[in-house]
Write a structure and sequence with these properties.
The structure holds two protein chains of two kinds. Chain A is of the alpha/beta class. Chain A has five helices and six strands. Chain A has one domain: Pyruvate-ferredoxin Oxidoreductase, domain 3 (3-Layer(aba) Sandwich). Chain A has a six-stranded mixed sheet, covered by helices on one side. In chain A, about 55% of the residues are buried. In chain B, the strands form three sheets. Chain B has a seven-stranded mixed sheet, with helices on both faces. Classes of the chains: A alpha/beta, B alpha/beta.
């Protein structure tokens, strides 16, 4: 079983990202379970979402405490919340940042990847300049960094699960796939 | 077709496939997205169901009592305080023998304010004459809605389908969504015996003197007693058509186990992983899932626990002054029996606290190691 935790801020689309990634894995024939942190979220406040993936039906129905990988939609969360809490050694931390992975030396026990999902989202007209929607771009980067799920499955899932700008969202994911820094 | 959907979406699909005529509901977390989904479909014209907007849950149930008496298939969904507010009308729905189906998304009742999973809301309605069915995954949620209408309309009693807040309601997973044609051939249209008919006027639920009232209650009890057979037939028919069935209870794990763990809702799902692991480690233990709480499946349970010496029960609910409600019902149903395993009543996970595999294993190990419980309530995962 693979367990993934998303860190974002309310309104960034972390919950949708976990669902889109779930459907991408589902298209590859795997069982999935995605859920938000069961809280009372407000716009801008730190939020989490979770995803389990397995070859067997998933019967475990508890929170994820020891994720295999982490996806951070907002780099200002690093330090503000304990994003690496419980993260397994050798896990990927994928961060939405224009800086190279070496910038995040505090997290050097883990494998770090960065992608400038904010610029990619703005370039593709997703959200506004002040509040870009980065959740689809970051999934393209996750496909490349982790090698766990194909970019075509991500693009297909984006088309199915996003309410609008399907082409732009899918394009953002492909650009992030090509631009992610490992 | 298989789709990745939340428990609340599974409910909405179940309602759509059941060709429900009237929906009336009032929003409350974590139920709200069920009715949001349905009302959007109705507003866009894609679903020909009538949506009655009301100012409270009490009125939602009252509206359905009117609609169901009129002879149409009805649905509502609620949680927690909303269900409590409906209480009076719940008695009315069963007393009037109306086959209304309702979903309750289990949520704690405040204060302190809490929106998370806890069975105290549905279980405090146990004496209202409703059938209660608990679900452990989103597939079971959808399938149970389809079965619920058939059971309700056969025995003329309302059914409450119950699912855990967030752990199912807001969790997405693959669910096989049957086609309309498949469901149509399983669930025929609702044909009430005495619908309102202006050509043939009748009075409904009028005052009934002591010389008749008791027989009305007796008939409700008799209808409840039909539920095990009726629901088994419905489940068998469902299984033959869709390849899935659930039963009132389900025993899993080691066959000859003398220690059993009884659970309901999503705790069952997590318990399956724990019991599988413990069986692999050589521990003889089995699980007992309780799907149907009302009528309480005493016969089915007794048949499934033959040879068991100890029964551990995990209750995600509390009747203050007694303990866990499933444990309480189990003890009462075992008392007149010849074989009476020791009941270990654990209370855990109140207000949405996670019932982790570690806690489940702790409950099992405690039961294995102790000849009898050190009290009527064993608190599991309590911060002291």
């Amino acid at each position: 079983m693979i367990e993934i935790r998303f860190h974002g801020r309310g309104g960034q689309g972390a919950v949708v990202a976990s669902k889109v990634l779930a459907v991408a894995f589902f298209h590859e024939g795997l069982y999935v379970q995605s859920f938000p942190a069961f809280g009372v979220e407000r716009r801008g406040a730190p939020v989490m979402a979770f995803l389990r993936v397995d070859r067997e039906p998933i019967q475990l129905r508890v929170n994820i405490y020891k994720p295999d990988h982490i996806i951070v939609l907002d780099p200002t969360l690093i330090g503000a919340v304990d994003v690496t809490s419980g993260l397994k050694p050798n896990g990927w931390i994928l961060i939405n940042s224009g800086h190279p992975p070496e910038t995040f030396n505090d997290l050097k026990d883990f494998r770090i990847a960065t992608v400038d999902a904010t610029s990619i989202a703005i370039r593709n007209g997703l959200g506004s300049r002040t509040n870009p929607i980065v959740n689809t771009a970051i999934l393209g980067a996750f496909s490349k960094a982790s090698g766990l799920v194909g970019i075509d499955s991500i693009a297909l899932s984006i088309r199915e699960e996003t309410p609008g700008k399907k082409n732009e969202n899918a394009k953002a994911a492909r650009e992030a796939y090509n631009e992610v820094k490992l | 077709m298989k789709r990745v959907i939340t428990g609340n979406q599974a409910v909405a699909y179940g309602v759509i496939l059941s060709r429900v005529d009237v929906v009336s509901a009032y929003p409350i977390t974590p139920q709200t997205t069920i009715v949001e989904e349905l009302s959007e479909l109705i507003a866009s014209g894609r679903l020909k169901t009538r949506f009655l907007k009301v100012e409270s849950e009490h009125s939602a149930m009252a509206a359905l009592i009117g609609a169901s008496t009129g002879g149409v298939r009805c649905f509502t969904a609620t949680s927690s305080h909303g269900l409590a507010y409906m209480h009076e009308m719940l008695h009315w729905a069963s007393g009037a023998r109306l086959p209304i189906v309702m979903v309750n998304v289990n949520r704690a009742i405040g204060p302190p304010w809490n929106i998370w999973s806890d069975q105290s809301d549905s279980l405090s309605q146990r004496d209202t004459g409703w059938i209660q069915l608990y679900c452990e995954n989103n597939q079971e949620v959808l399938d149970t809605i389809l079965q619920a209408y058939l059971i309700a309309e056969k025995v003329k009693l309302p059914v409450m389908v119950v699912l855990d807040a967030f752990v199912l309601s807001h969790t997405s997973e693959p669910v096989e969504v049957p086609s309309m044609e498949e469901v149509d051939s399983f669930l025929p249209p609702f044909c009430p015996d005495y619908p309102i008919d202006t050509q043939e006027p009748r009075a409904y639920s009028v005052i009934t003197m002591p010389e008749h009232f008791m027989e009305f209650r007796y008939k409700i009890q008799k209808a409840m007693e039909e539920v095990p057979d009726v629901s088994k037939k419905v489940d068998d028919e469902f299984r033959s058509r869709f390849g899935r069935g659930y039963g009132a209870i389900e025993r899993y794990g080691k066959e000859e186990a003398e220690v059993l763990l009884m659970t309901s809702g999503t705790v069952t799902s997590t318990s399956r992983t724990v019991i599988r692991k413990l069986n692999e480690d050589g521990l003889s233990v089995a699980g007992l899932k309780i799907k149907r709480f009302r009528p309480f499946p005493s016969e089915e349970i007794y048949g499934a626990i033959k040879g068991a010496k100890k029964l551990a029960v995990i209750d995600r609910n509390l009747s203050a002054g007694v303990g866990g409600i499933f444990a309480q019902e189990l003890r009462a149903s075992l008392y007149p029996r010849e074989e009476r395993p020791q009941v270990f009543g654990f209370v855990s996970g109140l207000g949405g606290r996670d019932i982790t595999p570690e806690l489940i294993e702790e409950a099992i190990q405690y039961t294995v190691e102790h000849p009898q419980p050190e009290g009527d309530i064993l608190w599991l995962g309590l911060k002291k």
